[in-house]
Amino acid sequence: MTRVLSYNILVGGTHRVEQLKRLIKSQQPDIVGLIEAIDEQVIREIADYLGMEYYLSGRAKDKQGWQGVILSYLPVLYTKIHASPIITKQPLLEVGFEEPDGQHLAVFLAHLTADFSQRREAYCRRRREIEELLHIMDARRGTRHMLMGDFNAIVSGERLKGSSFLLYVTHPSLYDQLQADPSITRPDLDFVLPPSLRLLKPLLKSIPKHEILASLLDRADAFYAPRGGIELMSKSGYVDCFRLLNPDEGGYTWPAPLPAGRVDYIFASPELVQTLSASAVVTEGDGVLASNTSDHLPILAEFGQPVLDDSPDEKSVTLVK
After folding, report:
1. What share of the chain is helix, strand, coil (3-state, %, to 5)?
2. Rounded to whole angstroms, how far apart are CA atoms 93 and 58?
3. 188-236: per-residue pLDDT in tens?
């Protein structure tokens, strides 16, 4: 049985390391993928606490760029960093593991473009990035592998609660709960609004206070929700682990204090998904609320039992929140 956790820890997690350590360990993961892992000292502390080794993606552009990290105590067969001018936020990290039963598993970690205020341009950029990810992963076709990370996009047909996001960006106290580094800029409406629409900010700030307006905004999410080619994953045979096992749940992962949309995913290859036994969004662990440790909620997938098994073991039921 292999448990995998994917987690965007928000700009390094520097001032939240103790909470992050406890929350991650509570889920008993065998493999952990962390996005925005820019503070290597934090990663080292988490790895030591978990008894794991870690492997960094490296930064996309310079010392100020993003990077990801994969941690595990499983034997490592190889590591690869896939740098590409198309994948601009951080290089695609690939690590091959040998599982306890001797099977091989390749794990890819990605962080796709946000740039929500650029609307159509950002959509096209994310779509090109996913096409590039699929091209790189072609080398693993026919083998057990997965892709996880922060895609900064909503699956076609799923909903985004715009009223929750507006409330989040217009009430700084919600962001302060994260005990973030004071140098981190709090998100605001400029993060999602193109310059031509910023004159609407006073109106948008008032919407969460009105139930009818908030409901109308949520129903109109097709006009503003960030998307960008995630459907290409399923067309290429990859399976969205959370949605497969939780067809009727929202599974929202961001922003953590007021989850409005599902932007974090674990995709499994056809060979791997046959043993998927559990998948969930983690909201708490060891007395730590995930909404106080990052602006994203972590997601978990467990492999080891057939997906059609209707009676998952007790560990899967009790540890996944």
Report:
1. 35, 20, 40
2. 9
3. 777 777 777 777 777 777 888 888 988 988 888 888 778 878 999 999 9
pLDDT in tens, 78-134: 999 999 999 988 999 999 999 999 999 999 999 998 776 667 887 888 999 999 999
Report the C-alpha gap between 139 and 259 in whole angstroms: 35
Asked whether the beta carbons of 225 and 262 are under 8 A apart, the reply is no
Tell me the sheet residues that pair with 288: 285
CA distance 148 to 246: 17
Do 4 and 302 contact (CB within 8 A), yes or no? yes
Contact predicate 193/201, CB 8 Å: yes
DSSP β-bridge partners for residue 278? 302
- In this prediction the pTM is 0.90
Structure letter (DSSP) for residue 103 = -
Residue identified by tokens 């159509």 is: 120
HSE on the CB side for 181, CA within 13 Å? 12
Place of tokens 């990052």: 294
E strands within 52-138? Answer: 53-56, 69-72, 76-82, 92-98, 104-111
Q: Domain residue spans in the chain?
A: 2-319
The amino acid sitting at 46 is: I
How remote is the C-alpha of 133 from its chain's centroid? Answer: 16
Distance from the Cα of residue 123 to its chain's centroid: 17
Give the separation between CA 30 and CA 99, rounded to whole angstroms. 9
CA neighbor of 46 nearest in space, from 290, 295, 37: 37
CATH of span 2-319: 3.60.10.10
The angle formed by the CA atoms of residues 296, 186 and 45, to the nearest 5 degrees, is: 50
Q: Please give the C-alpha separations between residue 9 and each of 180, 215, 296, 313, in angstroms, as whole numbers.
A: 11, 30, 7, 29
Beta bridge partners of 80: 94
